[in-house]
Design a protein that fits this description.
800 residues, alpha+beta, five-stranded antiparallel beta sheet, 20 helices
C-alpha cells in the first residue's frame, strides 16, 4: 500500500522527515518496506517559449528548436513529435539536474547531437517526475511568463512515497487518514479529519428507488446525487495526489471517488444516472452463473451467489469488486449517482478470488471497513464533485441500513497493562494513548477502565488487544529492561517430535543434506508422479505453478537436483522429511484427504569424481539401497521389513504386507518432465506407517560377543537367469535356524557351460553358536535343508 507523505501532512502537522515518519510507523506495526522519492525542487527548470522548429539535417527523428528562456535564446535538439512553434514548455537549462527512475540524477550539459549543438532539454512529465506521460513534451499554459521558474507554475513539490506492508487485521490503516491517526497518536499531534457527522435527510432520494434484497451480504447502502456536472480533466492538485500513489487520473468524477477511497478507506462508485434503467437500484445475488462485462471491458463469468448491484434491466456492478461497462461515467454524463455501501467481507473476498480480480475496493471491503462511514464519505465525494464539476448536490440521500453493527465495549485493567508490558504507566497515561487512537475511555473504577472500541477497529475485541494498542504507541523501545527474568522450562517434546528428530539425525549421519521444498506443484508436475484421481487441487491457487498438493516428495528432489546441476554441483545426496497428500475415501484428518509423513533419500551425480587415480564413478541404485538398509538398521526396524522386488528398477519394502518404502531409478519420461538429464535414484519411506506400527521406541538389545568362532560355508547354485539373489537369500534365511547369522553373495557367473538362460550365484553362509564351536557335522544338516528348499522353490542345483 502506497502512502504519500505530502498527502499525509494534510491531516497531521509534523516536522518529521520521511525517514523519521517511516521509523515511527514501523514501530507502530505499519511496517514501511520502502521509501521512494518523486518530483524535485525543479531548480534550473524554467518556462521556455519555442520560437521556431526545423528538421535536424542529420537525423530524421530529431528537430532543432529555437527556445527563448527569458534572458537568452538557445538551440535545443528535441525528439518529441508534439513539439511546435509557439508552445510554452518546461526547459532544463545547462547545469540543471533531473531525477532518474533508478534514483540517480541526470545533469544537463552542453552537447552536440548528430553534429548540432543542444543547450538544454525540453522535458516530458516523466522526466520531471510528475506523471507517467512519456508520449511527448509537457505543454504548459500559454499565459505563463517566459523565463519564470517552473516551480512557481505548478502546485507540486518533492514527495516521498512510503510502501507499507499492511497486515490483514488493520483495515483502518488502508488509507491516509488511518495512517495519520496512528502517527498523530504517537507524536501527540492533532488529527485534521474532514469527515464530520452528516444528518440523514428526512426523505429518501425521489429520483431513484434503492432496495437491498440480500441483506446478509449488504448491510448498508447509501446513495447521493450531483446534478448539472461537467465531466472534465481534474485539477492539478487532485491529479498530483493520485499520481503520487501510482493511480492514473481519469476525469474529475472518477478521480474524486478514488481520492476518497485512499483518503478515508471507503470505496465508492459513480454511476451515470441517465444509464440506470428504470431508475432502480436492487442489491441482490443470483443463484446461477452470470456473464458480466466489467469496467475493464472484459466479459467475466461470475459464479452463482455473487452479490450484484442491479438496475431495472440487470447487473451494473459486481458488488465491492468492480463496476460495469454499461453504466460508467463518460464525457456526456450530466448527473452522477454516488454509491457508498458496506458489503460483507466474506462475500467480497469470495467474489474477488473467484474472478481472480483484486481491486482497490475489494482490498478494503474484504478486510472490513467502518460500517458508520458510508454517509459521511458519500457527502465528502458529492461536495468535491460539485466543486470540481460545477454541479449541484441533491439535498436528499437514500440510506438503507438493514443490518447494524453493535459497538464493542472492552474493560481494561491498568495493572494488567503494566504486568504484560513491563511498564509503570498510570491510568491517565493509558487513557490518553487510547483516546488519541479514538477509543472512548471512561473510568469504571479505580482499577479498571471501560473502553468503547471505534467501529473502524474490528480487530480489537479483548483486553489484550487494548494492551497491544498501548504498547505500540508507547513504543516498545521505551519499555525498560527487567531487572530479573523468570526461568521457563521448555515444554517436553512429544514422542512423534522425538521420532522425527531421530529420523533427521540418522539421515544426516548417512551424509545426506536436508532440503525443504514446496508442498504445492503445478498440474503438469503432479501428473508425472501420480494418477489424477489421487490429486488434491487447491480451489484458489496462488499461481499455475502451485495448484496441486504433492502426492510424493520426488518432485521437490528433482527440482532441487536440476537447480544444483545448473550451478555445477555434481554430487547430490539430499533428504527431505515432509507431508504428502492423496485423495482417499476415509482420510486422515479431513474426509477424503490422506495425509502422512514421508522421508525421501535422493542420489544423483557422482560419488567419485575423475582424478589421477581413476575415472569418475556415478551413483547407482545399489548405493541408495545400502543407505536405506543402514537407515533401517539404525532405526532398529530391519528385522520387521521385508523386501519385495517389483522390477529391475524398483524395490519395495513391506511391513505386515503393506508397502512402507520404495527404492527406484527415475524413468526417462519423468526426468524429461522435470528437465533433468542425469540419472537419479530415490527412496521414499512412509515414516508415519513405521511410527503407527509401534516401532518408534524399539530398544536396541546388547548381545554378548561369542567366545566361539563362526563357521563359514560357501555354496553356489545354478538357477534360471530371472531368479534374483535377494529371493534366494530370503529363502536361505527362512530355511535355517538362528545359528545362521549372515548370508552374503560373493560371486555371480554366467557362461555357456551352465546352459542357456542359466547363471550361478555363490553365497557365503556364516554360522555361529554361542555355546560351542561348530563343525561341518553341525552345519551339514542345515545346508542340506537349505539346498532342498532352493531346489523345491527355484529348481536350483547345487554347483559342484
Amino acid at each position: 500500500m502506497k502512502i504519500s507523505t505530502n498527502w499525509l501532512r494534510e491531516y497531521i502537522e509534523t516536522p518529521l522527515d520521511a525517514d523519521e515518519i517511516a521509523d515511527k510507523l514501523t514501530l507502530l506495526g505499519l511496517e514501511v518496506e520502502g521509501i521512494e522519492k518523486i518530483g524535485s525542487d525543479y531548480e534550473g527548470i524554467v518556462v521556455g517559449e519555442i520560437l521556431g522548429v526545423k528538421a535536424h539535417p542529420n537525423a530524421d527523428r530529431l528537430q532543432l528548436c529555437e527556445v527563448h528562456l527569458g534572458n537568452e535564446q538557445v538551440q535545443i535538439v528535441c525528439g518529441a513529435k508534439n513539439v511546435a512553434k509557439g508552445q510554452k514548455v518546461p526547459v532544463a537549462v545547462v547545469g540543471a539536474t533531473l531525477p532518474l527512475p533508478d534514483g540517480d540524477e541526470l545533469t544537463i550539459r552542453k552537447a552536440k547531437l548528430r553534429g548540432e549543438k543542444s543547450e538544454g532539454m525540453i522535458c516530458s512529465e516523466v522526466e520531471l517526475g510528475i506523471g507517467d506521460d512519456n508520449s511527448g513534451i509537457m505543454v504548459l499554459d500559454e499565459s505563463l511568463k517566459t523565463g519564470s521558474p517552473f516551480k512557481e507554475t505548478i502546485n507540486t513539490k518533492p514527495d516521498y512515497i512510503l510502501e507499507i506492508g499492511l497486515t490483514p487485521n488493520r483495515p483502518d490503516a488502508a488509507c491516509h487518514i488511518g495512517v495519520a491517526r496512528d502517527l498523530a497518536a504517537v507524536i501527540e499531534g492533532e488529527l485534521k479529519n474532514p469527515y464530520q457527522e452528516v444528518e440523514k435527510s428526512a426523505e429518501d432520494l425521489s429520483f431513484i428507488n434503492v432496495n437491498i434484497e440480500d441483506t446478509e451480504k449488504c448491510h448498508r447502502y447509501v446513495g447521493m446525487m450531483v446534478n448539472e456536472v461537467t465531466v472534465s480533466e481534474s485539477p492539478e492538485w487532485l491529479k498530483t495526489r493520485l499520481k503520487s500513489i501510482g493511480l492514473r487520473p481519469v476525469n474529475n468524477i472518477v478521480d474524486v471517488t478514488n481520492f476518497v477511497l485512499h483518503e478515508i478507506g471507503q470505496p465508492l462508485h459513480a454511476f451515470d444516472y441517465a444509464k440506470i434503467a428504470s431508475k432502480k437500484i436492487n442489491v441482490k445475488s443470483f443463484d446461477k452463473e452470470v456473464t458480466f462485462k466489467t469496467l475493464d471491458d472484459v466479459d467475466r463469468k461470475v459464479p452463482a451467489n455473487t452479490l450484484f448491484i442491479c438496475d431495472g434491466d440487470g447487473p451494473v456492478a459486481v458488488a465491492g469488486v468492480m463496476g460495469g461497462k454499461s453504466s460508467e461515467v463518460s464525457d456526456e454524463t450530466k448527473t452522477v449517482f454516488i454509491e457508498s455501501a458496506y458489503f460483507d467481507p466474506t462475500s467480497v473476498r469470495k467474489a474477488s478470488k473467484a474472478l481472480t480480480l483484486q481491486t482497490d475496493s475489494s482490498y478494503r471491503f474484504e478486510r472490513g471497513i467502518d460500517p458508520t462511514l458510508q454517509l459521511r464519505a458519500a457527502k465528502r465525494a458529492a461536495d468535491l464533485i460539485a466543486e470540481l464539476s460545477g454541479g449541484k448536490v441533491v439535498a436528499q440521500q437514500t440510506d438503507e441500513h438493514p443490518v447494524k453493527t453493535d459497538q464493542k465495549t472492552v474493560s481494561l485493567r491498568p495493572s494488567r497493562v503494566n504486568h504484560l508490558l513491563g511498564t509503570d504507566l498510570g491510568k491517565e497515561e493509558i487513557s490518553g494513548i487510547l483516546t488519541r487512537l479514538e477509543f472512548g475511555v471512561t473510568s469504571k473504577s479505580e482499577d479498571e477502565l471501560t473502553c468503547i472500541v471505534p467501529y473502524f477497529r474490528p480487530d480489537v475485541s479483548r483486553e489484550v488487544d487494548l494492551i497491544e494498542e498501548v504498547g505500540r504507541v508507547f513504543d516498545y523501545n521505551n519499555i525498560p529492561t527487567p531487572k530479573t527474568s523468570p526461568f521457563f522450562t521448555p515444554e517436553t517434546l512429544s514422542e512423534w517430535e522425538v521420532y522425527n528428530e531421530r529420523v533427521r539425525t540418522l539421515a544426516k549421519s548417512l551424509s545426506y543434506k536436508e532440503i525443504t521444498t514446496n508442498s504445492l506443484l503445478s498440474k503438469k508436475e503432479a501428473s508425472l508422479l501420480a494418477d489424477e484421481n489421487l490429486h488434491i487441487d487447491t480451489l484458489n491457487p496462488v499461481s499455475q505453478e502451485n495448484t496441486t498438493l504433492r502426492t510424493h516428495l520426488l518432485a521437490g528432489f528433482l527440482k532441487a537436483a536440476r537447480y544444483n546441476f545448473n550451478r555445477n554441483a555434481k554430487q547430490l545426496r539430499f533428504f527431505e522429511l515432509g507431508h504428502v497428500f492423496q485423495q482417499d475415501k476415509k482420510g486422515t484428518w479431513i474426509d477424503g484427504v490422506k495425509e502422512h509423513s514421508n522421508l525421501l533419500f535422493g542420489l544423483s551425480g557422482y560419488k567419485k569424481f575423475e582424478s589421477w587415480d581413476g575415472k569418475p564413478e556415478p551413483f547407482s541404485i545399489f548405493d541408495l539401497k545400502a543407505d536405506v538398509e543402514a537407515f533401517f538398521r539404525e532405526l532398529n526396524v530391519h528385522d520387521k521389513v521385508e523386501q519385495v522386488v517389483q522390477s529391475n528398477y524398483e524395490l519395495e519394502y513391506q511391513l505386515d504386507g503393506n508397502s512402507v518404502a520404495i527404492i527406484k531409478m527415475i524413468d526417462d519420461s519423468t526426468l524429461k518432465g522435470f528437465d533433468l538429464e542425469e540419472e537419479a535414484f530415490t527412496a521414499e519411506i512412509d515414516i508415519t506407517a513405521l511410527y503407527n506400527a509401534g516401532l518408534a521406541n524399539r530398544d536396541t538389545e546388547y548381545q554378548k560377543v561369542s567366545k566361539y568362532p563362526s563357521f563359514e560355508f560357501d555354496a553356489a547354485f545354478i538357477v534360471d537367469s530371472e531368479v534374483r539373489a535377494g529371493d534366494l537369500s530370503k529363502e536361505i534365511r527362512r530355511s535355517a535356524d538362528e545359528t545362521l547369522v549372515s548370508v552374503d553373495v560373493f560371486d555371480v557367473y554366467e557362461g555357456k557351460n551352465l546352459g542357456s538362460n542359466k547363471k550361478s550365484i555363490a553365497f557365503r553362509l556364516s554360522f555361529l553358536d554361542s555355546n560351542k564351536t561348530l563343525t561341518i557335522k553341525d552345519v551339514e544338516p542345515m545346508v542340506k535343508k537349505i539346498v532342498q528348499a532352493l531346489e523345491s522353490k527355484f529348481e536350483a542345483k547345487l554347483r559342484s
